[in-house]
Amino acid sequence: MRSHSSVSRKIPRKYQPKGFEIVHEDDHIIVGYKSAGILTVAAPYERERTVHQYLNEYVRKGNSRSRHVVFVVHRLDRETSGVLIFAKDPRAQEFLKDHWKVTHKIYYAVVHGRMAKKAGTISSYLVEDDKYRMHSMDEGGDGKLSHTAYKVIKETDRFSLLEIDLLTGRKNQIRVHLSGEGHPLVGDQKYGRPDRRNPYLALHARSISFIHPATGERMLFEAPIPELFFKLVGYQW
After folding, report:
1. How many domains does the chain have?
2. Catalytic annotation, pick one of 77, 142, 188, 195
3. Are strands 134-137 and 119-128 parallel, antiparallel or unpaired?
4. What CATH number does residue 153 fall under?
5. Distance between CA 173 and CA 144 in Å, rounded?
6. Contact at 8 Å (CB) between 33 and 21?
7. Dist. CA 1–CA 11, nearest whole Å
8. Please, where are the H alpha helices in the chain?
9. Would residue 174 count as lying in a domain?
10. pLDDT tens-digit readout, 44-65
11. What are 212's strand-pairing partners?
12. What pTM was computed for the model?
């Protein structure tokens, strides 16, 4: 790929897209922090109010005739906050996807209860049903083998704070794996338990380390921890 500028551009607050704070932009990529409650990309029930759409509007700079778009590299669940990468051209997108196995992703999660095993790796095959719900299976079949490494950072009487090394990136992987262990994420209405006191999903994409598609430089970005995590477990970062 031909090398262009990879110097980050500072984006004034008034130009920041909704639900996504841009912290790095150059000729090839945009990196930012997604807020909880917004989709990364369009879904059958929501096609316009997504990070992807807002970024398309951002790169078009108000020109309705512009064909400029951004390209999806990976996704976060709607209720998951944290760091996201988008590519600004197809070559950058292809490079990042081809090098995804050497991209390192760390998540923080708060789960119900205290885990008997304080560190380990959860492995199973994940498959999606016709209602878009993921299921964990011990044997392959149509499922994709998935691995989630974790370690307990802090415990309270009710909750455990986990640092998670996402070794594979399947849909809802962290939520399904931890629910299967009997420790669903706090606020997980889909795979967990109803909890009126804690309705927000306690899952955060803390950091991502990847190789820049033009310069070959390894880059690291860390998203600030939401206040929710401190309220649940009182941990200071």
Report:
1. 1
2. 77
3. antiparallel
4. 3.30.2350.10
5. 11
6. yes
7. 26
8. 51-60, 90-98, 173-180, 227-233
9. yes
10. 666 568 999 999 999 998 777 7
11. none
12. 0.89
Beta carbons within 8 Å of 86's beta carbon, 6+ residues apart: 29, 30, 31, 52, 55, 70, 71, 72, 73
Six token digits for residue 97: 């996807």
Q: What is the pLDDT of residue 4?
A: 39
Say whether 51 sits in a helix, a strand or coil. helix
Cβ contact 34:81 at 8 Å: yes
Residue 35 lies in a domain: yes
In a domain, 83, yes or no: yes
Is 77 one of the catalytic residues? yes
In a domain, 2, yes or no: no
Run of H or E residues at 59: helix 51-60
149-158, 160-169, 186-195, 211-220: the lowest-pLDDT one: 186-195
Q: Which domain holds residue 224?
A: 13-233
- Closest listed residue to residue 183, CA positions, set 231, 138, 120: 120
